Each structure stands twice: as C-alpha cells, then as structure tokens.
Amino acid sequence: MEEEDIKKKRHTPLKEKLKSNIVQLMTKLELWKEELQREIPTYWDNFGNFVIFNSRFFVDENWRKAGPQLWNCVSELFSGKSVALQSKIQNNEFRSPSAHVVLGDSPWVKYLDNGVNYTWNVELTMFCTGNVSERHRIGTLDCEGQVIVDMFAGIGYFSLPYLVHTRAKQVIACEWNPASVRALRMNLAENKVAEKCVVLEGDVRVVCPRGVADHINLGLIPSCEQYWSVAAEILKPTG
User: Fold this and answer.
1) Which of 5, 25, 39, 87 has the fewest beta carbons closer than 10 A?
2) Which segments does the entry list as coiled coil (predicted)?
C-alpha cells in the first residue's frame, strides 16, 4: 500500500499515544523525569518499513539506559517498523546522512511512492522528503521517445518517475556517490526499468556525453547554477 503524508508533524492522536506509551515505559523502568518531556518526538519520517526520528529527540542518558525496550515500545506503535535516528545532513560532496539504526536487522529502507519502488541504505544515503511534489509532477509528463539526462540522479528520485510513468525512451542517470549508485541500480531492477537506463558513475562534467538530451533534470540543492553551462552542452540542438 502506498504511503501518504510522509511527515506526521500534526498527527496529534499518534503523537499523544507515543508520548503516553513512552512515559509509561520509562516510569516502569524508574527512568522517567520531567526533563524528558521535551525529548519525546513530535514529528518523524514514515517510510515503508522504517520510522525515522530526528536525533534532537532521545538525547538524555536515560533513553540509552532504557535500551531495546524503548525502541520496541516505539516500534510497536508503528506496526513493528525498524527505527532510526537521523541528524543534519553532512556538509560533504555526497550530502551524506548522519543516521544510525537503533532497531532492525537491516539499514535498507523499502518505500512505495506514487507507483515507484524506492530502496536506500538509511545510514549511507539520504531521501529528500521535500521533493515529493516534483517527483509526482514528473510522473504526469509525457516524454514519449525522449532521452532524459538526470545530472544528479541520487538513488533515482527523478530518474525512476521518468522511467516508470512518462514513456521516456531512455534516461541517462549520472551520480558520483557509490552508495547512491548501488541503491539506484537496485531501484532500476526492482521497478523493471533497468534496460531503459544508462547509469554513469562519476562527475557529471566528465562522464556525461554532450548533445544527447531532449530534456535535462537538474536536481542539485541548494543551487545548480554552476552546472547550467554543462547542461546546455548536454542538450541536443533541438532540446
């Protein structure tokens, strides 16, 4: 079943239930103190088999003392999902996550969104919730017969909607993060579109051929301006 409303910031009944269950557990373990109130999550990301909390929550030493009992308590409220904590994205060339799994056998997330299957290693690659509108918009395009170049493909945020929904002839997906490339290849296979995608691993300025694209996707944040001239070279004269 597809999941909607990825962010649960305003899901008051669930927030209250989570708070109640945590307080009860910590009280039972004789670890509760009022200062912990502000460290109980008020929002989270809900992706397929994972629920991911910001690491600004669960900071106090008493949470660590509660150990697996705490994470099992949390997981039960989310139908037994794996649990991870994530802080700010690292300021490196790969925009790597600062995340770790606290409950679960595997760091691999499996998530279905708008008819597209995504998987990624939550400890090695990020999944941007903020691009959901653009992912869905791309899925409405008609790109029949076109060659698409995704200059910053990641795990396939945009490449996959082009391939699954738009009838594109081919997608050339460029990505230089090895962990993202691995997830991208897995996603292409899972969605049965690998035969229509060429994955080029490395710096897009070096690996991508020129004059091949009808349409280019520039999904680099916070700005892709420095790549505009490269994008112009990658376009066909008619692109």
Assistant:
1) 5
2) none
The 10 Å Cβ neighbour count of residue 167 is 13
Task: Select from 66, 58, 62 the least CA-distant residue to 84.
Answer: 58
Dig out the tokens for 74 from the structure. Answer: 């949390």
Distance, CA of 100 to chain centre? 14
Contact 14, 41 (CB under 8 A): no
Please tell me the distance from the alpha carbon of residue 86 to that of residue 96, in angstroms, as a whole number: 11
**Per-residue pLDDT tens digits for 164-218:** 999 999 999 999 999 999 999 999 999 999 999 999 999 999 999 999 999 999 8
Beta bridge partners of 54: 86
**Bridge partners of residue 110, in order along the sequence:** 119
pTM: 0.86
Q: Which residue has the higher pLDDT, 12 or 124?
A: 124
Q: What does the alpha-carbon distance between residue 48 and residue 51 come to, in Å, rounded to a whole number?
A: 8
Show Cβ contacts of residue 66 under 8 Å, excluding neighbours closer than 6 positions. Answer: 25, 26, 29, 31
Q: What is the pLDDT of residues 71-123, one digit of tens each?
A: 999 999 999 899 999 876 656 565 656 688 999 999 999 999 999 999 999 99
Nearest to 40 by CA among 29, 28, 27, 54: 54
At residue 96's C-alpha, the angle toward residues 131 and 53, to 5°, is: 70
Contact present, 160 and 116 (Cβ < 8 Å): yes
Give the Cα separation of 12 and 155 in Å (integer).
Answer: 32
Of 230, 221, 75, the residue nearest 157 (C-alpha) = 221
Rama region for 126: left / alpha / beta (φ>0; ψ in -120 to 50; rest) = beta
